[in-house]
Specification:
single chain, mainly alpha, LEA_SMP_dom, SMP domain-containing protein
Length: 113
């Protein structure tokens, strides 16, 4: 990627498709953006987008991991809602049927009965 940066849409699209943006990639994009501008990363630029996607991915993984460690019969609607909110932020919209949060919501619904 020497001298070239991925488009912001490509970075965001990776989140939608479950492809991680690593800290190394964020650093590389920030470094390259700084070299190209001569002033550092641009506010709202590609490095900022990569950092934002990375942070949202980590938040989702943390929330989903916390709930996934619970026994299935202890998953609550609040757990499902928390994961759904993190997943929606990550992908930029409502998670689809079959998503992690949809499956957790189904488990929570069964537990409430």
């Amino acid at each position: 990627m020497s001298g070239q940066l991925p488009d912001k849409d490509i970075i965001q699209d990776r989140a939608v498709h479950g492809l991680p943006v690593t800290t190394d990639e964020v650093s590389h994009i920030a470094s390259t953006e700084s070299e190209l501008t001569g002033t550092g990363p641009i506010k709202g630029g590609k490095a900022a987008t990569a950092q934002s996607v990375h942070d949202k991915q980590q938040n989702f993984l943390d929330k989903a991991g916390d709930v996934a460690r619970k026994p299935a019969e202890q998953i609550t609607k609040e757990d499902a809602a928390e994961v759904q909110k993190a997943e929606a932020r990550l992908i930029g919209g409502q998670p689809e049927k079959g998503s992690m949060s949809a499956n957790l919501q189904s488990a929570a619904d069964k537990n409430q009965q």
